[in-house]
Each structure stands twice: as C-alpha cells, then as structure tokens.
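User: My collaborator sent over this chain with a note saying "see what the structure looks like." That's all I know about it. Can you take a look?
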Amino acid sequence: MIAFADHFSQLAARYAQYRPHYPPALVDALAAASLAHGVVWDIGCGNGQLSVALAARFDRVIATDPAQAQLDHAERHPRVEYRCEPAEASSLPDASVDLAVAAQAAHWFDWPRFVPEVGRVVRPGGLIGLVTYFNAELDGEAGALLAAFYADIAPHWPGGRTHVNNRYRDLVLPWPAVEPPAIDPTGGSAPRLAGGAVGAPTPRLASLDLTAQWTRDELFGYVTTWSATARLVAAGGGARLERLGRELTERWPGNEPREIRWPLTIKLTRR
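Assistant: Without extra context I'll predict from the sequence alone. Here is the result:
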C-alpha cells in the first residue's frame, strides 16, 4: 500500500461530528455536468460528507479513503460502498466510473501518481471534479477572532494546504475544461456558479458558498478538526487553542446559531 500522510485518523470522530456538509447545489452541478449518472468515485471521502449526497443523483457511489478510522465513522447508505484504499492506487476497473470527484482531499494526493490513476478509472467522456473550501468566515467579533487564529496557526498547516490557499489553481488535469452549469438560486439554497470560458488553457474555476448555521461550540469543535490545530497542540501550543475558546465565549455568550460561510471552489474537466 502507498504510504500517505495521515492527518485525520486520530480526529475521525470529531471530523464526523463537526465537518460541514456540502450544499445540494454542488451535487446538482456535478450531476448536470455529468453525461451519465451510473457510478461515482468519491475520492478521499473522509466520513462521507459528500458521498451520501451524491447517492441522491447517481446510481452507485464508491467512496474511498486511505484512513479506515474515517470510514468507520462514515454515514451509511444503500447506494454507497466505502473502501479503504489510496487515491493513487484504487481497486476500481479501467474505464468504470462516470464521475470522479475529490472534495477537500486533492491537496493531499501524490499528484503525479493520482492523475494517471483517475485517467485510468474514468470512462472516456466522464467527468472529473476537484472541490475545495477556503477558510471559514462569519461576521462580527467572532469572525475577527477566527481570522486571527487562522493567522497564528499558519506555520502548522501541512504542505498540501498551499493548494487550498490558491484555490487549486496549480493542480492541473490534462483534459479539457468543462463549463459548470448555472444553478437556479430559487429559494436561496442554490448559489450561482461563476467562472471562465470553456476551452481555457487550464480547467475552469467556479465558486459558490458552503454555509452552515452553527453555535459557538460547533464552530470551536470544527476548529479542533483542523490538521494545523492538531499539530499546534502536539507542538505545545494548546494554550492558544484554549484562548480562542475563552474569547469566543466572551464575544458569543449566548451560543446561538450564526451563519458560517466557506468560499467553495470547483474545478471540472472531461476525460
């Protein structure tokens, strides 16, 4: 088995509890852009934050992650099959999936090995999607505290975080870009997609917001799932995390739900 940097097995239970789930608009966009709706490969699926949602629009989802601890906490669904295996060496047959998607995972892949593997598994004409979300945002003093914590822990992010920071612009796939379809925002739950033209020299970027209504305690729980937070605590910086907890309590004393936003980027190509 290919060795991988396991940043999340020790955090799997909290990861399942506190990580945000993806908006229906993202699944709608992937389904609309896909030419067929048979088999999906959800790569680096974690606890299945996207896997179960994909099952609403596709016949079968094969969700893989190299960390068994993550899969042990994944939500079950009759059309989702979880497998413990790396992105760079799957057990899927050649040309066997209509869509391959990696959500908040591609920045951890061994890219030179992953590209030929995804090219092998996706059918000609199939869709390949990369999805990432950037730093969480919220309004007011609590948002300023969160931004300051992001800045303080920046040295503790593993190297792959660079790709998240630049919105996957340097993760290049060698197939034609796909225009993400416009998503009807009626009802306010499906944001608009935006980006460049088809045929651009690099795959087109499109953005929408992932949102959640969270309490202060849920936000703090999410912060504890970050790989950089775990590395900060392991390096003896637990006092900084504790300070964030105290400050959030002071400035958000009611613990009422507030809107949290993550700028979400998708990158689509056609095999």
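A starting point for your reply to your collaborator: The radius of gyration is 18 Å.
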